[in-house]
Amino acid sequence: MERQQATLVLAARGLLAPALVLVAGCAGQARLTDEEKLARVQEMVEEVERRFPEVEAVTVEEVGRLLETGSVVLVDARAPREREVSWIPGSITSEEFEQDPDRYAELTVVAYCTIGHRSSEYAKRRNEEGRPVLNLRGSLLSWTHAGAPLVGPDGPTNRLHVYGETWNLAPARYETIW
Question: In the prediction, which pLDDT does 10 show?
């Protein structure tokens, strides 16, 4: 425990490589199995849905069907630093959507983030403005647990920005950062 605290103090002072901070900071979540991580994701999703009962959610499977028909646009509601790591193939940023929302009027609009809280907030705001937006249930964490692909600046990737340690619940095959 003292070693972990010392590591975090050094990191806060900029004296340690960020990768070491990630190793020290994610030790608790790393011990969970993928099944335990998915169960925790489900608990968090249920909490998000309790907080946003007015926001309709769609599952990864439903989005997959919509993608097959070309009748959906996925909107990434995360911060730019998160989107720089990876994103769902074909998705657009919230800024891109807001520049010309009428362009997507004939499509189902589905927002996502890490777990669904921020994308639910985003969907709620757009819905209040009269622009129907759904939330991807469980967002990127559900997406990765379903085995769906991510892309990054260099193409397909297994890297995922998970917002923070609490959300470090991606399957073990993913390299998570925050």
Answer: 36
Query: What interhelical angle do 117-128 and 34-51 show, nearest 10?
Result: 30
pLDDT for the residue 23: 38
Which of 72, 73, 113, 140 is the catalytic position?
113
Q: 26 an active-site residue?
A: no
Whole-number Å distance between alpha carbons of 141 and 41: 7
Q: Which of 80, 126, 128, 82 is nearest to 105 (CA)?
A: 126
pTM value? 0.82
Rg (CA), the chain: 17
Task: Give the amino acid at 65.
Answer: R
Average pLDDT over residues 108-132: 97
Dig out the tokens for 1 from the structure: 């425990």
- Which residue is it, tokens 């999703």? 45
